[in-house]
Amino acid sequence: MEFTAEQIAQLIQGRIEGDSQAKITSFAKIEEGKPGAISFLSNQKYLNYIYETESSVVLVDESLQLERPVKATLIRVKSAYEAVAKLMQMYASMKPKKKGIDSLAFIAPTAKIGKDCYIGPFVAIGPNVTIGDGCVLHPHVTIGENATIGTNTEIYSNAVVYHDCKVGNNCILHAGCVIGADGFGFAPAADGYDKIPQLGIVTIEDNVEVGANTCIDRSTMGSTYVRKGVKLDNLVQIAHNTDIGANTVMSSQVGIAGSTKVGEWCMFGGQVGIAGHIKIGNKVQLGAQSGVPGSLPDGVSLIGTPPLPMTNYFRSHAVVKRLPDIYRQINEMQKTIDELKKKLGE
Q1: 311 exposure class (CB count in 10 Å sphere: 0-12, 13-18, 19+)
Q2: pLDDT tens column, 9-23
Q3: What is the dihedral of CA 169, 174, 179, 181, to 10 degrees?
Q4: Is 240 tagged catalytic?
Q5: Counting Cβ atoms within 10 Å, is residue 135 exposed (0-12), middle (13-18) or buried (19+)?
Q6: What is the spatial distance between Cα 299 and Cα 246, in angstroms, rounded to a whole number?
Q7: pTM of the predicted model, to two decimals?
Q8: Contact at 8 Å (CB) between 51 and 108?
Q9: pLDDT tens figures, 270-323
Q10: What angle do CA 196, 197, 203 make, to 5 degrees?
Q11: Which end of the chain lies in a sparser environment, N or C, as judged by fewer CB atoms within 10 Å?
Q12: CA–CA separation, 5 vs 124, rounded Å?
């Protein structure tokens, strides 16, 4: 597909500086630009590349100030990052969707498959499953008995949706993710641990994306919930009976323990750990590797274990790096004080 800078500017309501008829056929990072590509600049760390890039068009923020002329045609927009995301979504939506059921797929006779679906080879769909219209199930996907998949949902290879679980509309489940495995429930006994049956389900609402090898456990009773618009990175663990609020995002290796309620619009960095049976408020931001042992109110931005306000954390960390010197100074001061005491005593 080929577009001109003028056509792209109209799509994203941008202002052109340069050749409005510059031809675009691909995307490229600004540091790897090539003729015919469109790039973007939203991080000032990459500013020097705008003078060197071979990309034909670069999306930039309206406020960007340049020190010298550039070769590329610029399209100025309110937010270059948001604009390129919109363009990439449009590009992806133009690609034709696969349709049809492969002869090597297994579909139980009682399963219901919607219109215009693609069911790849070696997909296994159990009894009484419902698959909505326009779904794409890549090879080796497994959908357990009585599970429900909404419309226009895409599930990548080797992902598993266990029995009775529910996945909403317009969701993306990436390769190897597991929806509805047993929650980690065991009761101590004299000779080991007795397994507590996990009789609940997982409910994933609309417009949720689940990363590769992420696990969302079924509840002991009732349901584990992932609310609409949630985005989970790869290798995230959501334990049983949790409730993840709408539009919350989590980076890789976040772990949420059981029966915890996470609010809406939260943002968790990589390797954040949340204890069980607590409540995290709305719009909470947690820096990477934060460990949260107790409930948090709305709107806080914290980091560390236990988490501190970010300014206090970095100030404290700066002091920690100086502790050897501070310790040496304290010892020297103590020696001086001891000597003064001795002289005063004499």
Answers
A1: exposed
A2: 999 999 999 999 999
A3: 170
A4: yes
A5: buried
A6: 15
A7: 0.85
A8: no
A9: 999 999 999 999 999 999 999 999 999 999 999 999 898 988 888 888 888 888
A10: 120
A11: C
A12: 45
